[in-house]
Amino acid sequence: MPRPATMRNIHAWLLLLPAMAFIVAFTHVPAVNTFIHSFMLDGKGGAPATFVGLEHYMYLFEDEVFRKALVNNLLFASGTIPLSIGLAMLMAFMVNAGLAGQSVLRLCYFVPTVLPMIAVANIWLFFFTPEYGLLEQVRGALGFSGVNWLGNESTALPCVIAVAVWKDAGFFMIFYLAALQQISPSLGEAAMLEGASRLYFYRRVVIPLLMPTTLFVLVNATINAFRMVDHLFVLTQGGPNNASSLLLYYIYEVSFKYWDTGYGAALTMVLLAFLGLASIGQFGFFERKVHYR
């Protein structure tokens, strides 16, 4: 007769089995197949794929579009991650301050999150359209000359960054708001009795207590920054001259537009490796600064 502890372990693994099966079938197996396929060259006309070793990975150093997409993605991440996290924290502070109409404020902040990404891109396309867009209407009324925001190499990527920040900040705000509501009000009362200013209280007490949430949000923001592709289909399609092309969009083009799935698999593995290293670095650096309660 098995011991009760053994039976509990068996029951626990049986309960985990369906979820583990789905994870293995739809995450790990495709990842392994992609890794294997990155060493293969697709056969033409139904011919079998041939093994080419590291040829795809060596070509990465010669691919100018890949280098451009990588630099764009790093710039995109450098813009969206701090802006969306900082804006989300600020919005959470505002809706948690007990202001009049805070329910409406929460709704306004959260609405962009529930909108479909294609709808968001079309909304912002109305802002950026040359001559007829809202930005151009305002600039024209002020006497400024027109700007093709999405057709200019110097402004296309900043426009995509603005759309991503507007979309993500409200989502991250929910996590910060939940974390703020878990902080005991007695900490604020003690800070007031000690004569601490509100700014000092937020800087030395509240923000350090929000570090677990910040770590979680940071990892998610990094993943979002390297998997953003929906907006590009509507806004820029990676143009002009690949000025707004990001890694995942380039992977899509290589794999499904040019049908070079072997090279697309190699690009996918590079993206996965980069995300893995970034996550490990974030946990390694910020884990020491996190104060768990």
Automatic annotation (TrEMBL):
Residues 70-280 form the ABC transmembrane type-1 domain. SUPFAM superfamilies: MetI-like. InterPro entries: ABC_transporter_permease (IPR051393), MetI-like (IPR000515), MetI-like_sf (IPR035906). GO terms for cellular component: plasma membrane. The keyword Transmembrane applies. Its main location: membrane. Keywords: Cell membrane, Membrane, Transmembrane, Transmembrane helix, Transport. GO terms for biological process: transmembrane transport. It is found in: Cell membrane. The keyword Transmembrane applies. It comes from the Bacteria. It is a multi-pass membrane protein. The chain crosses the membrane at residues 12-31, 74-95, 107-127, 155-180, 201-223, 263-286. PANTHER family: ABC TRANSPORTER PERMEASE PROTEIN (PTHR30193), INNER MEMBRANE ABC TRANSPORTER PERMEASE PROTEIN YCJO (PTHR30193:SF37). Belongs to the binding-protein-dependent transport system permease family. This is ABC transporter, permease protein. It comes from Nitratidesulfovibrio vulgaris (strain ATCC 29579 / DSM 644 / CCUG 34227 / NCIMB 8303 / VKM B-1760 / Hildenborough) (Desulfovibrio vulgaris). The lineage of its organism: Bacteria, Pseudomonadati, Thermodesulfobacteriota, Desulfovibrionia, Desulfovibrionales.
